[in-house]
Amino acid sequence: MHKYRTAPLRVFTVGDFRVLRENTEVTTKDFGRDNALRLFQFLVTARAQRAMHKEQIIDRIWGEELDMKAGEQNFKVALHGANKALEPDRPSRTEPRFILRQGVTYQINLSEIWIDVEAVDEFIGIGNRAFQTDKELAETAFREAINLHHGVYLPNRLYEDWSSDERERLQVLVLGALMTLSEMLLEKNPAESIRLAQNALQLDPAWEDAYRIQMRAYRQKGNRPMVIKTYRACEKILEEEFGIEPLPETKRVLREVTEAK
Predict the structure, then answer these.
(1) Residue 87: left if φ>0, alpha if ψ -120 to 50, beta else—which one?
(2) φ/ψ (deg, to 5) at 146
(3) Is 249 within 8 Å of 212 (Cβ atoms)?
(4) Residue ranges of domains in the chain
(5) Which distant-in-sequence residues (6+ apart) come within 8 Å of 193 by Cβ?
């Protein structure tokens, strides 16, 4: 979290999109036109691709809306608006600090920007690496990642094709963290395990692993009726969504409860 405290620009992409510059909020109004905000959000989303050619950026954002000439004009205006919003006091004729340009390629400057989804990646990586050797560290790291994920990625860009891959990637990543943590807590804190599994089902109501974890946790608590009820809910959603039955391991948990003396 050192970078969170020291980065001159902090970007929150999950839930309400927010940008903080030295603890001062950069508002939507500061970006002026929506295209300026759209361009910045695209560059944040495409951060792993590093420098992108201007034509690639135009094609990804406005390709289906505008021809290349109009797209280049849009890009020029949007880039100016984004840089002005992020660095309103930057002296003229100096290079931008947060959006880097190299010839006709552009990228955000990750060394100067803290991004919540980057932190989610980092914490889950720490949790995965510590899982076998330091359970306490792993639990703390997974919790930090989960706490940062409190909504939908870029909710104002739900219908932009360029945002969907990152949204889906992040969801699967957090679902994995929720399942790993709930599994870790199954014996010592089954109630917390159930809560985490329920959070997973809010992200994906058909995530079978979450139903199975809940069933095992209810079994741990000696709550046979809730094991059965949870199985029925799982069975119903899988049939409705995919026309399939629960996996054998899910059925096995039910059978172990119903056949117990």
Answers:
(1) beta
(2) -65, -40
(3) yes
(4) 2-114, 188-261
(5) 182, 183, 185, 186, 213, 214, 216, 217, 220
CATH of domain 188-261: 1.25.40.10
Q: How many CB atoms lie within 10 A of CB 129?
A: 13
Reduce the DSSP state of residue 9 to 3 states and report it. strand
pLDDT in tens, the chain (261 residues): 557 778 999 999 999 899 999 889 999 999 999 999 999 999 999 998 879 999 999 999 988 776 778 888 999 999 999 999 999 999 988 999 999 999 999 999 999 999 999 999 999 999 999 999 999 999 999 999 999 998 999 999 999 999 999 999 999 999 999 999 999 999 999 999 999 999 999 999 999 999 999 999 999 999 999 999 999 999 999 999 999 999 999 999 999 988 875
Contact 241, 233 (CB under 8 A): no
**CATH, range 2-114:** 1.10.10.10
The token pair that represents 87 in the structure block: 């660095």
